[in-house]
C-alpha cells in the first residue's frame, strides 16, 4: 500500500520492476534504464533481502551499493524499495510468482532475464531449466496476472565505442570487455583493480570494505591433537609471536578454558565433544569475520566436526588446521589429569 501510494503521489502510471539478489554495476544500470525507457515507464529497483543463494553478498552491503547506484539515474525516474523475500531458486514458476508480487506492489512491468531464479545445474551438470523458460511462462500468463514482462539481453562493454551495448548489437571483431562474477570475487579477494567501466568507484569501495583482500582478512589457526600433545603450549607461543609481529586483535580459544567458561555443562561423550568444538568454531568465525585472529586449541577428534568448523570459517577468511602429532606414549607421560 505504501509503495502504491508513492507511485500515485509521483504520478507514476507505469512502473517497471527489476529484481536482483546481487550488487548492481554499470551493465545493470544500463539495462534497467533501457528497459524503462523502452516501455516509457519509471523504474523500481526491488531487490530481495531475505535468504538467498549460499555465497551471495549480504544484503546490508548490497543495499549500500544500490543506494549509491541510484544517484546515477536521472532524478525522479527511479526508486529503491526492499523486498523481504527468501529466494527459492524455483526457476520459471518462481518468476511467475515474482511477477504477481510486483503486480501487488503496483508495478505494470517486470524485467526478466536469462534463467530467472534458476538453481543452476543438476548433479549431471545439466541446467534444471531452459535459459528462456521463465520468459516464455510469463508471456503465456501476463494477460491473466495483469503485469507485462520486459525481456532483457546481456549488456556488454565495447571498448571500441566506450559504452555498453546489447549482445545482439555487437559487431564482428569488436573489442568486448567483461568481468564475470567469479573474476570480480577474485579481484576483491586479491585486492586487484576493478575498472571504472565495470562499476562505479564508490560502489567498488563499498564492496572492497565489505570483502577485504586476503592480507586484510581475519583468519583462524585450528590446532588439534591428543590431550598432552602440546597444543596449548604451541598456541600460546604462536599468540605471543603474532602479537609482537602484527597489530591485530588476537584471541586464544584454549580447549580447557572454553570448557570452563562456555561449556561447563558438557560432558565427554561424542555428542558433547562435538558441541564444544562447534562452539569454539562459532566464536572463531565471529573473530575471523571481523578481521581478527583466532587461535584454537581443542581436542577435536572427529573429522566431520572439524570439516564443519572449516566450512563455517572459510567463507569469512583464512583457515589453517594443524595436527600436533605427538605419540600416545609421550602424551601419557605428560598426562596430569588422569
UniProtKB/TrEMBL annotation:
EC primary class: transferase
InterPro entries named among the record's database cross-references: APS_kinase_dom, P-loop_NTPase, Rossmann-like_a/b/a_fold, Sulf_AdTrans/APS_kinase, Sulfurylase_cat_dom
Protein name: Sulfate adenylyltransferase / Adenylylsulfate kinase
Species of origin: hydrothermal vent metagenome
Any GO molecular function: adenylylsulfate kinase activity
One GO biological process term: sulfate assimilation via adenylyl sulfate reduction
Keyword Nucleotidyltransferase in record: yes
Domain annotation Sulphate adenylyltransferase catalytic: ranges: 1-209
Key words, A-Z: ATP-binding, Kinase, Nucleotide-binding, Nucleotidyltransferase, Transferase
Gene Ontology cellular-component terms listed: cytoplasm
Phylogenetic lineage: unclassified sequences, metagenomes, ecological metagenomes
Gene3D superfamilies found in the cross-reference section: HUPs (3.40.50.620), P-loop containing nucleotide triphosphate hydrolases (3.40.50.300)
Amino acid at each position: 500500500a505504501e509503495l502504491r501510494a508513492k507511485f500515485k503521489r509521483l504520478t507514476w502510471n507505469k512502473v517497471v520492476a527489476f529484481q536482483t539478489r546481487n550488487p548492481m554495476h554499470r551493465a545493470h544500470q544500463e539495462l534497467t534504464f533501457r528497459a524503462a525507457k523502452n516501455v516509457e515507464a519509471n523504474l523500481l529497483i526491488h531487490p530481495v533481502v531475505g535468504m538467498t543463494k549460499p555465497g551471495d553478498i549480504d544484503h546490508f552491503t548490497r543495499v549500500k551499493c544500490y543506494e549509491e547506484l541510484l544517484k546515477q539515474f536521472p532524478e525522479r525516474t527511479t526508486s529503491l524499495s526492499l523486498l523481504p523475500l527468501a529466494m527459492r531458486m524455483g526457476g520459471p514458476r518462481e518468476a511467475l510468482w515474482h511477477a504477481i508480487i510486483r503486480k501487488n506492489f503496483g508495478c505494470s512491468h517486470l524485467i526478466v532475464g536469462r534463467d530467472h531464479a534458476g538453481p543452476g545445474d543438476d548433479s549431471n551438470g545439466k541446467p534444471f531449466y531452459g535459459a528462456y523458460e521463465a520468459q516464455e511462462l510469463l508471456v503465456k500468463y501476463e494477460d491473466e496476472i495483469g503485469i507485462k514482462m520486459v525481456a532483457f539481453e546481456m549488456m556488454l562493454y565495447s571498448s571500441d565505442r566506450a559504452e555498453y551495448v546489447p549482445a545482439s548489437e555487437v559487431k564482428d571483431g569488436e573489442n568486448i570487455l567483461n568481468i564475470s562474477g567469479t573474476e570480480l570475487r577474485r579481484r576483491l579477494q586479491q585486492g586487484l583493480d576493478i575498472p571504472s567501466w565495470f562499476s562505479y568507484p564508490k560502489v567498488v569501495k563499498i564492496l572492497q570494505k565489505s570483502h577485504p583482500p586476503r592480507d586484510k582478512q581475519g583468519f583462524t589457526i585450528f590446532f588439534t591433537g591428543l590431550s598432552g600433545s602440546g597444543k596449548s603450549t604451541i598456541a600460546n607461543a604462536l599468540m605471543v609471536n603474532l602479537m609482537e609481529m602484527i597489530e591485530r586483535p588476537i584471541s586464544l580459544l584454549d580447549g580447557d578454558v572454553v570448557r570452563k567458561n562456555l561449556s561447563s555443562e558438557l560432558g565427554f561423550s561424542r555428542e558433547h565433544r562435538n558441541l564444544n568444538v562447534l562452539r569454539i568454531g562459532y566464536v572463531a568465525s565471529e573473530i575471523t569475520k571481523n578481521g581478527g585472529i583466532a587461535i584454537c586449541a581443542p581436542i577435536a577428534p572427529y573429522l566431520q566436526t572439524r570439516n564443519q568448523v572449516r566450512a563455517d570459517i572459510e567463507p569469512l577468511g583464512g583457515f589453517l588446521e594443524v595436527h600436533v602429532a605427538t605419540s600416545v606414549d609421550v602424551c601419557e607421560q605428560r598426562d596430569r589429569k588422569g
